[in-house]
UniProtKB/TrEMBL annotation:
NCBIfam families: leuS_bact (TIGR00396). This is Leucine--tRNA ligase. It is found in: Cytoplasm. It is an enzyme of class 6 (ligase). Residues 415-617 form the Aminoacyl-tRNA synthetase class Ia domain. ATP binds at K582. The lineage of its organism: Bacteria, Bacillati, Bacillota, Clostridia, Lachnospirales. Keywords: Aminoacyl-tRNA synthetase, ATP-binding, Cytoplasm, Ligase, Nucleotide-binding, Protein biosynthesis.
């Protein structure tokens, strides 16, 4: 038969849908498998080849699991709130709802054309009111438990998108959405206290199967450190500056302090500061810089000494200057740091520039040249002198600090609380009310969802206010506690909100009374295997793990961790080896490949192109190679025979079952497909194969190329659908060759090869070797001195 993909593929997609073969059954007696892919943002550009690769790993695993007898949940949905849609709405005057619905429809059709085995009955859309009702409900539960708070702070603001961005969304000083430069702006911000869950997030990593680099990224992101909080008096005033340090043992080396330019002590004691004009000018300069610019390690050191205020080193009583410098941020730690220039390069550079004392307290370097950051014996440190182990000197200093009441042991985290509001329209409304009498009040649960009002103008206000602030009918309301006139919160949630719990909703997507039924959660959760991109292993995964831990503490979910296992796919690069982008003109449209070569070719190629976790360039020639392979597979029906295959081919068939089964589980899809390509060469060389052997072949290939395999299954009279037939099993005994070919040496030189029974006894091996004409000619007329046999490897004769 021929691989007529334009006819075959729509036919089997319709049959799968009609038979509801991919619908998961709640509370089945079968073992369950929950495979999860990162649900897409439905952009106007539609699906790209990166989506195909991202979804193909668990597509293959899910198809294999169904054939292994599992009840499989393999769902899809759409993470549809967000700035790109709103920006497009502003540009075109089309409502985001209309744009989103059109994009979801296009995306769904594209996914179906590729033949993904998603359960389309469980599709979720984060912009659906029935969905975001529960996003708001979770937010209110956090509000009840004190995990939501508001604070005025310097924020990262994108003037182009007119929106406040979290640190995570403005890395490198650029907006994640439009890549414009971000500026600093003072604003009231809603936060989620994710830092309260920092330890649980770290502990939970011990119980999950994530790649080491994923775990390390999360550990680094959370950034837990152990150290001490130490109080420095300010000379002449009743004020203390608290600092945090991981090296309290170096306190005797502190020769200056640095505080953030925004530190409140400056305004409080402005009358004592004699250079306020200089300080004010420096502060104004800092306000123009993003947090990224301010905290760069490699940059010119700038700062201003505060004339009129001096700190006092708490361990030796010495007065030390206090500076302001842009690299110290109020939002990080305490807004003040101690500086030990002899043992920190940034402090060293700063001290050299401003002529500040540098005192060595750890032996081992040459501080006339640079800071010494290694370990060594403590010097110039009073009671610590002579200590050589860092751990011991830190413990001794902590004792002293606590005894004198000037400090205590503590921990800090690099991760900050999550800035959780956006000044845009297309997001979940934050269900809070501002009452002049009661303060901030929650919208009653029975009034959820708090719906987005239908508006025509999505433009954000020039002052950074949400478009919702312009709608009086939305803003003005009554306080649910006291009945007074009140105003609604007009900010919306960030796009990360809906994706922080979507995997739970898949277990029970149509429930109007709970985010999901507990019995269904107990059956399906945790997610058995979650695949996605490396770019989401910190933000999205940490945020969603935080929400899940919170819900577990509430008793709403049944497991502390949402994902048992995580895997990562590599990028598909353009044919030129660069990242695909429209501007470079190197983008490959997957639907073009489906149209020209078929969905099975596309599916096979994206997994054959290279190591699944590595970035790999697109190759049109390799696509054509995969199409030729599938043409050859279709042609196997032409050499069907009643005759059984040779022992050699039977062995290779069983070896291939073993290899493909193992490779799929280890995400070695390229070598699994390669072994099937090798096997088809062996079959072609044999010239025939039985119906049973062809059945095994198409079952192994079907997770990769399901349409052509279903067609062959039907052609050879297979019962039911191949998609739910039984996965092949190998016989270990049949994977072992009955004979082996080994080399024969005479006096250390290979003189020929012989075929012997597998596991042959040495006397028999010698007999077969001597009987070989070519070997016999090298032994003729000589005395055999020694006979050596390495089983299944080599025979060696020593003769004179």
């Amino acid at each position: 038969m021929k691989y007529l993909f334009k006819k075959i593929e729509p036919k089997w997609q319709a049959k799968w849908e009609e038979a509801k073969v991919f619908e998961a059954k709640d509370n089945s007696d079968k073992p369950k498998f929950y495979g999860l892919v990162e649900f897409p943002y439905p952009s106007g550009a539609g699906m790209h080849v990166g989506h195909i690769k991202a979804y193909s790993s668990l597509e293959v695993i899910s198809r294999k699991r169904r054939m292994e007898g599992y009840n499989v949940l393999f769902p899809i949905g759409f993470d549809a709130f967000g700035l790109p849609t709103e920006n497009y709405a502003v540009k075109t005057g089309t409502h985001p709802r209309i744009i989103t619905d059109e994009n979801i429809k296009r995306f769904s059709n594209q996914l179906k054309k590729v033949g993904f085995s998603f359960d389309w009955n469980r599709v979720i859309d984060t912009t659906d009111e029935d969905y975001y009702k529960w996003t708001q409900w979770i937010f209110l539960k956090m509000f009840e438990k004190g995990l939501v708070f508001r604070d005025r702070t310097l924020v990262n603001y994108c003037p182009h998108c007119k929106v406040v961005l979290s640190n995570e969304d403005s890395q490198g000083g650029k907006c994640d959405i439009c890549h414009s430069d971000v500026v600093q702006k003072s604003k009231d911000v809603w936060y989620l206290r994710i830092t309260q869950y920092a330890d649980k997030l770290l502990e939970g990593l011990k119980d999950v199967d994530y790649p080491d680099n994923v775990k390390q990224q999360q550990i680094h992101w959370i950034g837990k450190s152990k150290g001490a909080f130490v109080n420095f008096d300010v000379d002449g005033i009743d004020e203390k500056l608290e600092i945090y340090t991981t090296r309290p043992d170096t306190l005797f080396g502190v020769t200056f302090m640095v505080i953030a330019p925004e530190h409140p002590i400056i305004d409080k004691y402005a009358d004592k500061i004699t250079n306020m004009d200089e300080i004010t000018a420096y502060r104004n300069e800092c306000a123009k810089k993003t947090e990224f610019e301010r905290t760069q390690l490699v940059k010119d050191k700038t700062g201003v000494r505060i004339q009129g205020l001096e700190g006092i080193n708490p361990v030796n009583g010495k007065k030390i200057p206090i500076y302001i410098a842009d690299y110290v941020m109020m939002g990080y730690g305490t807004g003040a740091i101690m500086a030990v220039p002899a043992h920190d390069q940034r402090d060293y550079d700063f001290a050299k520039k401003f002529g500040i004392d540098i005192i060595e307290v750890i032996k081992g370097g040459d501080i006339s040249k640079e800071a010494y950051t290694g370990d060594g014996e403590m010097v110039n440190s009073d009671f610590l002198n002579g200590y050589a182990k860092k751990k011991d000197s830190i413990e001794r200093m902590l004792e002293e600090l606590e005894k004198k009441g000037i400090g205590k042991a503590g921990v800090q985290y690099k991760m900050k609380d999550w800035a959780f509001n956006r000044q845009r329209y297309w997001g979940e409304p934050i269900p809070l009310i501002h009452c002049p009498n009661c303060g901030v009040v929650a919208v009653p649960e029975n009034e959820l969802p708090l719906r987005l009002p239908d508006v025509k103008d999505f433009e954000p206000g020039e002052d950074g206010q949400s478009p919702l602030a312009k709608i009086d009918s939305f803003v003005n309301c009554t306080c649910p506690k006291c009945g007074a006139a009140a105003k609604r919160e007009t900010d919306t949630m960030p796009q990360w909100a809906g994706s922080s719990w979507y995997f739970l909703r898949y277990t029970d997507p149509h429930n109007a009374n709970a985010l999901a039924d507990m019995d269904k959660l107990k059956y399906w959760m945790p997610v058995d295997w979650y695949n996605g991109g490396m770019e989401h292993v910190t933000r999205h995964m940490i945020y969603s793990r935080f929400w899940h831990h919170f819900l577990y503490d509430l008793g709403v979910v049944n497991t502390p961790e949402p994902y048992a296992k995580r895997s990562i796919q590599g990028l598909i690069l353009g044919p030129d080896g660069d990242k695909m982008s429209k501007s470079k003109g190197n983008v490959v449209d997957p639907l073009d490949i489906v149209e020209e070569y078929g969905a099975d070719t596309l599916r096979t190629y994206v997994l054959f192109m290279g190591d699944y976790g590595a970035a790999t360039p697109w190759s049109e020639n390799s696509v054509k190679g995969c199409k030729k392979f599938l043409d050859r597979v279709a042609g196997l029906t032409d050499i069907l025979s009643e005759e059984s295959v040779s022992d050699e081919l039977e062995m290779k068939l069983h070896r291939t079952i073993k290899k493909v089964s193992s490779d799929i589980e280890n995400l070695k899809f390229n070598t699994a497909i390669a072994s099937l390509m090798t096997l088809i060469n062996e079959i072609t060389a044999e010239g025939h194969l039985s119906k049973n052997d062809l059945t095994i072949f198409i079952k192994l290939l079907s997770p990769f190329a399901p349409h052509i395999c279903e067609e062959i299954w039907e052609f050879i009279g297979g019962e039911g659908l191949l998609a739910v037939s039984e996965w092949p099993k190998y016989d270990e005994g049949k994977t072992i060759a009955k004979t082996v070919e080994i080399g024969v040496q005479v006096n250390g030189k290979v003189r020929g090869t012989i075929v012997i029974p597998n596991g042959c006894e040495k006397e028999k091996a010698f007999e077969i070797a001597k009987a070989d004409e070519r070997i016999a000619s090298f032994l003729e007329g000589k005395n055999l001195i020694k006979e050596i046999y390495v089983p299944n490897k080599i025979v060696n004769f020593v003769a004179k």
